[in-house]
Amino acid sequence: MTFELPSLPYSMDALQPYISQRTLEFHYGKHHKNYVSKLNELIRDTPYEKMELDEIIRESAHMSDEDIFNNAAQAWNHDFYWHCFTPKAQHDVKDSSFINLINKNYGSVDNLKIQFTNSAKKLFGSGWTWLVLNSDGSLSIQNMKNADTPLAHDQVPLLTCDVWEHAYYLDYQNERPKYLTNFWEIVDWHFVEDNLNKSSFSKVGTNKNQSTGKELSS
Ligand code: MN
After folding, report:
1. Is residue 1 part of a domain?
2. Ligand 1 centroid, distance to 78 Cα (angstroms)
3. 13 assigned to some structural domain
4. Does residue 30 or residue 205 have the better pLDDT?
5. What does the alpha-carbon distance between residue 88 and residue 70 come to, in Å, rounded to a whole number?
6. Which tens digits make up the pLDDT trace of 177-214?
7. Global pTM?
8. How remote is the CA of residue 173 from the centroid of ligand 1, in Å?
9. Are 198 and 103 members of one domain?
10. Which residue range(s) make up the domain with 132?
């Protein structure tokens, strides 16, 4: 199949002043677009051509097809990253089961934010900081290098921050910590909660019906 650049879930100027229109014009309009175009070139006339994007990521990781993995994972990671933001951000986590899970793993939502931010500050070079759900139902904060993605590690991505310089250099130059502080102003917690709630891993140890994901009435 030929992949298309997915549309942004908001307008190019919607995340200002935290992420500028100019950054989105380059980051979405050029970097993200280029990963998608490059992927289409690389998979042409290969077995990958018939796969969905997540299948390409898993298979190319397994087969060590580095170019295909890098472009497929970057195409997927960026689409996920755009959805982590909303211009109508609510700063509080609303879902009580998610709050309980965060409290169990990190003590508090504020502490989760601090640990995620510290992790992103420490990532050397290019990569992504992720909040993931593990198969045992626990949460982890992980730095991943370059294009690496939780999809290649059987983890469920809940939230990510792109810490490649191209994500922040136009707005913040070398000041990654300022970008990270402002990151929390636009996080879409509904999206994060949805990622948790639609995952089969999130039902580990809870009273949910495996096939429908709905709470049992018992
Ligand atoms: Mn990027």
Report:
1. no
2. 6
3. no
4. 30
5. 32
6. 999 999 999 999 999 999 999 887 654 443 333 333 33
7. 0.91
8. 15
9. yes
10. 96-202
